[in-house]
């Protein structure tokens, strides 16, 4: 018998915190909780490696949590902010592209990322929604971000401690309602991938 109780690890509990904060972001209509989900998403892999508990089960759970927190939650917040046909269509496209992005990531074994990572896509979308009160602009941006996620553009990983510290600081600012720095970092990252792709 496949017993979840026997295979679940401490890193899986961190992943479940990601799911919980993503769900609460939807139920409470909260942008800040998605930023907190990003923190848990960053921590679960680190905890798994440090405790030597990396597993296929954990990878599947992580992928599901990302769909909730960085696909469904941002899409819902986009629609709930504007409640228009356009924002509904954009939200559906964004969420579907995020799910496709994660499905592709799950079967590939490559260095870096192919397509904009869904956490970066979520951060871009919710930062824009917080700063720009425009149904048209945010809906178009959601569709463009979705297309970036399923594109063939390669994006690098940034494991360096300096970048992690800067990014962590930007998330703290975003949680308390100052998302400018997070938006800037994610924009630079997204544009960098595009420029590098077309300069090949």
UniProtKB/TrEMBL annotation:
<feature type="transmembrane region" description="Helical">
    <location>
        <begin position="163"/>
        <end position="192"/>
    </location>
</feature>
<keyword id="KW-0808">Transferase</keyword>
<dbReference type="InterPro" id="IPR048254">
    <property type="entry name" value="CDP_ALCOHOL_P_TRANSF_CS"/>
</dbReference>
<keyword id="KW-1208">Phospholipid metabolism</keyword>
<feature type="transmembrane region" description="Helical">
    <location>
        <begin position="84"/>
        <end position="103"/>
    </location>
</feature>
<dbReference type="InterPro" id="IPR000462">
    <property type="entry name" value="CDP-OH_P_trans"/>
</dbReference>
<keyword id="KW-0443">Lipid metabolism</keyword>
<comment type="similarity">
    <text>Belongs to the CDP-alcohol phosphatidyltransferase class-I family.</text>
</comment>
<dbReference type="GO" id="GO:0012505">
    <property type="term" value="C:endomembrane system"/>
</dbReference>
<dbReference type="GO" id="GO:0003882">
    <property type="term" value="F:CDP-diacylglycerol-serine O-phosphatidyltransferase activity"/>
</dbReference>
<dbReference type="InterPro" id="IPR050324">
    <property type="entry name" value="CDP-alcohol_PTase-I"/>
</dbReference>
<feature type="transmembrane region" description="Helical">
    <location>
        <begin position="110"/>
        <end position="128"/>
    </location>
</feature>
<keyword id="KW-0472">Membrane</keyword>
<dbReference type="Pfam" id="PF01066">
    <property type="entry name" value="CDP-OH_P_transf"/>
</dbReference>
<keyword id="KW-0812">Transmembrane</keyword>
<keyword id="KW-0444">Lipid biosynthesis</keyword>
<feature type="transmembrane region" description="Helical">
    <location>
        <begin position="12"/>
        <end position="40"/>
    </location>
</feature>
<dbReference type="GO" id="GO:0016020">
    <property type="term" value="C:membrane"/>
</dbReference>
<feature type="transmembrane region" description="Helical">
    <location>
        <begin position="134"/>
        <end position="151"/>
    </location>
</feature>
<keyword id="KW-0594">Phospholipid biosynthesis</keyword>
<dbReference type="GO" id="GO:0008654">
    <property type="term" value="P:phospholipid biosynthetic process"/>
</dbReference>
<keyword id="KW-1133">Transmembrane helix</keyword>
<dbReference type="InterPro" id="IPR043130">
    <property type="entry name" value="CDP-OH_PTrfase_TM_dom"/>
</dbReference>
<protein>
    <recommendedName>
        <fullName>CDP-diacylglycerol--serine O-phosphatidyltransferase</fullName>
        <ecNumber>2.7.8.8</ecNumber>
    </recommendedName>
</protein>
<dbReference type="InterPro" id="IPR004533">
    <property type="entry name" value="CDP-diaglyc--ser_O-PTrfase"/>
</dbReference>
